[in-house]
């Protein structure tokens, strides 16, 4: 049992953590503790000193030490004496913002209820969620708020969402709602977050929390390239393998905000939820509003364990369908191979080359529909351009299938070009404010996904294409953020709901298509990794990580991505050199190393390669397929911080600690310098490992035995030595030089 309800004390327990709340003497719900397990009620930590200039509840007016302005709340609300950032703010029918929530009941549940229309964490194959609802109410305003908790004991993860029910006969308006809110009393924390831009997503940043409010957010109606809905609070000494840290992840793909406040008495409050900017939601009498879900985990053993917890919860309880667990196809994507310049025959040639290389899937990217020979036109006109292909798409797919290869297609359902038949027919389906000029980005507009007619139209259209064409894979792109947020089907006083309704429309379309086609692999994409979040992973079990495939930069992007998202979800490819984004020239082997921690594939035209390069790619694919089970199912460890160490290094260790793969890249070659050291992690200290150094056979002390020039070098080390002293690795004499080691235990 992980849920314990005693009179006034409510505790959620996971294997290694305790989350504790209590009902205070006035019926308010306080947050007592989240962290390492303790064996008692933690209410003794609550402040009992009077802090001047703070208000108290009417009932407690002579007890001036008991102030809502400093108490730790489980769901801090706007109004009623708490002047810190709030997780719930509701405008009452009179127009004022003041909630006074008291506990109505606490209900243990024997199963977790689905979240209607939203992604949510669910029972896994090996572990069921335990659930509990805490019902709060503002009696006078006739508003009920339900906190839905679910606990994944083995995975050390707790999920929470917030639901508001309006029993008032008049309408109310939700102004802000955050499913994650954590109050910490007097703690010193660093905040870790992931910022970026297109071709530079999820860059790691760590900073001490100071007084005031820090806001990490997106108001782009997408989780965005610029920030990710994932925050870590870490004790200042926390590192990969030690120290306490709290991970917080929002399962939502729209505008979000992560707020951290250090208050007047040094307490820290963290909120993660829907961005209150450009959002409010009218709830009429008897209507409900369900927030997205947030996932929380605590580790006292540093970031590696925290990442494992999130990897596991996403793999077992977020992603669905066969691709959440099964092997993934190695693919070749036509984008950087051909851009918009192709016809059916050149695609068939590409397919033949793809097959010869040993890949499993050919993806025809942008340019196959309408008059789409550049990115100025045709989004919305999803009719195959037979004039360009010189054959029906069905015929092309049939021929690819006959080669023994799977076939996939790029689509961008939520978009519309001004130059399209669809726009000429249905201008009101685009998010354009009548009589105002819309913002254009990549020369395209955005479809109004808040309009159910649009969603139904897209469902009919794409389900027919997938069915008729027998597709095996879909790349679902999203190349600009919706702006203006306007829907022609909503009245003026409800336009503030468009941002969220847009996301709900997208989820509805994704749900229907992924449900109907469980054997089609859907890969998410948004100008690379602009919508890489746990909400999308519920529908699309892999996401294109970034349009930047340069091995050097990509290793940093993947580093940031790995903190929360499982490696099996990361779309990563080898592309041609000079790299199309950076012009860098990195060797084929080192590009393969950088693309390995992910789903793997190629983004190039094999016809432009030397014969020897093609043979190397064949070997790479065989090798990757051999390693994929370890990469997908093993535990992932970051061995360096590429932002500080000028090197990226990571490793996978299988669950039995018998096999491991260590990979990485030194960004700068340093002349006349000993081979550099990498300290390994996750091994069994008591086992001996045979290390095969496949890329460049050289080392000191361990003294690899070079058997002959082409055979990989081998040596034996103890797990303890490798995790304490590390191993020296030598690379080729150039910048961005990769290395890799395979380990196999001898006992
Ligand atoms: C986006 C994607 C690319 C490619 C292009 C096609 O930029 O991230 O991978 O699909 O669109 O237009």
Could you please describe the fold and organization of this structure?
It contains 14 helices and 40 strands. By secondary structure, it is of the alpha+beta class. The strands form 8 sheets. Strands 6, 7, 8, 9, 12, 13, 15, 16, 20 and 21 form a 10-stranded antiparallel β-sheet that branches. The protein has a 9-stranded parallel β-sheet with strand order 30-29-28-27-24-23-22-32-31. The chain has a 6-stranded antiparallel β-sheet with strand order 33-34-35-40-37-38. Strand 17 and strand 18 form a beta hairpin. Helix 3 runs parallel beside helix 5, helix 7 packs parallel to helix 8 and helix 10 packs parallel to helix 11. It binds alpha-D-galactopyranose (GLA). The site of alpha-D-galactopyranose has 12 residues, from loops.
Distance from N terminus to C terminus (CA atoms, Å) equals 37 Å
The CATH superfamily of the largest domain turns out to be: alpha-galactosidase from lactobacil brevis
Class of secondary structure makeup: alpha+beta
CATH topology of the largest domain: Beta-galactosidase, Chain A, domain 5
Uncertain residue segments: 696-708
The geometry reads as globular
**What is the averaged pLDDT score?**
95
Fraction in beta strands: 25-35%
What is the number of helical segments per DSSP (H or I, 4+ residues)? 14
CATH class of the largest domain: Mainly Beta
Helix amount: 10-25%
Question: What hetero molecules are bound to the protein chains?
Answer: alpha-D-galactopyranose
Number of domains: 3
- How many extended strands? 40
Let me know the largest β-sheet: 10 strands, antiparallel
CATH architecture tag of the largest domain: Distorted Sandwich
Specify Rg, calculated over alpha carbons: 27 Å
């Amino acid at each position: 049992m992980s849920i314990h309800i005693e009179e006034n004390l409510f505790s959620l327990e996971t294997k290694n953590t305790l989350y504790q709340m209590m009902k205070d003497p006035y019926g308010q719900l306080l947050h007592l503790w989240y962290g390492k397990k303790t064996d008692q009620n933690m209410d003794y930590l609550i402040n009992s000193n009077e802090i001047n200039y703070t208000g108290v509840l009417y009932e407690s007016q002579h007890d001036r030490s008991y102030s809502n302005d400093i108490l730790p709340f489980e769901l801090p609300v706007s109004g009623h004496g708490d002047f810190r950032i709030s997780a719930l703010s509701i405008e009452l029918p009179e127009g004022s913002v003041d909630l006074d929530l008291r506990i109505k009941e606490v209900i243990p549940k024997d199963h977790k209820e689905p979240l209607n229309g939203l992604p949510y964490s669910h029972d896994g194959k090996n572990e069921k969620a335990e659930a509990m609802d805490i019902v709060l109410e503002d009696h006078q305003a006739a508003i009920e708020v339900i906190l839905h908790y679910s606990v994944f004991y083995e995975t050390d993860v707790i999920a929470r969402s917030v639901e508001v029910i309006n029993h008032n006969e008049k309408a109310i308006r939700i102004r802000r709602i955050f499913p994650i809110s954590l109050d910490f009393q007097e703690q010193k924390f660093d905040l870790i977050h992931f910022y970026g831009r297109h071709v530079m997503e999820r860059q790691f940043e760590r900073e001490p929390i100071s007084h005031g409010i820090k806001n990490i957010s997106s108001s782009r109606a997408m989780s965005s390239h610029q920030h990710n809905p994932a925050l870590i609070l870490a004790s200042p000494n926390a590192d990969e393998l030690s120290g306490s840290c709290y991970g917080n992840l929002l399962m939502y793909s729209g505008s979000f905000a992560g707020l951290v406040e250090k208050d007047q008495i040094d307490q820290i409050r963290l909120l993660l939820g829907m961005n209150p900017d450009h959002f409010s939601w009218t709830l009429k009498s008897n209507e409900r509003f369900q927030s997205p879900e947030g996932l929380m985990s605590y580790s006292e053993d540093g970031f590696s364990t925290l990442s494992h917890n999130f990897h596991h919860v996403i793999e077992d309880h977020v992603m669905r369908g066969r691709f959440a667990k099964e092997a993934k196809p190695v693919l070749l994507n036509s984008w950087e191979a051909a851009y918009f310049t192709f016809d059916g025959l050149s695609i068939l040639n590409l397919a033949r080359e793809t097959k010869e290389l040993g890949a499993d899937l050919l993806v025809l990217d942008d340019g196959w529909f309408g008059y789409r020979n550049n990115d100025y036109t045709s989004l919305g006109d999803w009719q195959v351009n037979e004039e360009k292909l010189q054959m029906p798409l069905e015929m092309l797919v049939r021929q690819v299938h006959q080669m023994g290869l799977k076939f996939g297609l790029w689509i961008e359902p939520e978009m519309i070009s001004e130059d399209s038949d669809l726009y000429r027919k249905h201008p009101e389906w685009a998010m354009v404010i009548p009589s105002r000029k819309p913002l254009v980005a990549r020369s395209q507009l955005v479809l109004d996904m808040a309009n159910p007619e649009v969603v139904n139209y897209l469902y009919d259209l794409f389900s027919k294409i997938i069915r008729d064409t027998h597709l095996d894979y879909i790349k679902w792109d999203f190349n600009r953020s919706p702006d203006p947020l306007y829907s022609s089907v909503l009245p003026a006083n409800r336009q503030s709901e468009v941002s969220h309704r847009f996301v709900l429309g997208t989820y509805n379309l994704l749900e229907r298509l992924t449900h109907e086609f469980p054997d089609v692999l859907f890969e998410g994409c948004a100008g690379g990794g602009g919508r890489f979040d746990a909400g999308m992973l519920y529908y699309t079990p892999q996401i294109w990580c970034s349009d930047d495939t340069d091995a050097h930069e990509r290793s940093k992007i993947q580093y940031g991505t790995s903190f929360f998202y499982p490696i099996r979800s990361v779309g990563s490819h080898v592309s041609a050199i000079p790299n199309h984004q950076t012009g860098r020239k990195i060797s084929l082997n080192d590009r393969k190393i950088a693309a390995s921690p992910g789903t793997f594939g190629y983004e190039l035209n094999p016809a432009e390669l030397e014969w020897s390069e093609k043979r190397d790619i064949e070997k790479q694919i065989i090798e990757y397929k051999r390693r994929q089970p370890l990469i997908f199912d093993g535990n992932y460890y970051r061995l360096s911080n590429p932002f500080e160490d000028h090197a990226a290094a990571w490793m996978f260790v299988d669950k039995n600690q018998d096999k491991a793969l260590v990979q990485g890249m030194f960004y700068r070659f340093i002349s006349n310098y000993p081979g550099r050291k990498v300290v390994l992690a996750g091994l069994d200290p008591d086992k001996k490992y045979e290390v095969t150094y496949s890329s460049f056979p050289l080392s000191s002390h361990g003294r690899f035995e070079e058997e002959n020039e082409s055979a990989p070098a081998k040596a034996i080390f103890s797990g303890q030595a490798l995790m304490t002293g590390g191993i020296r690795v030598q690379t080729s004499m150039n910048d961005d030089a990769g290395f890799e080691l395979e380990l196999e235990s001898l006992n």
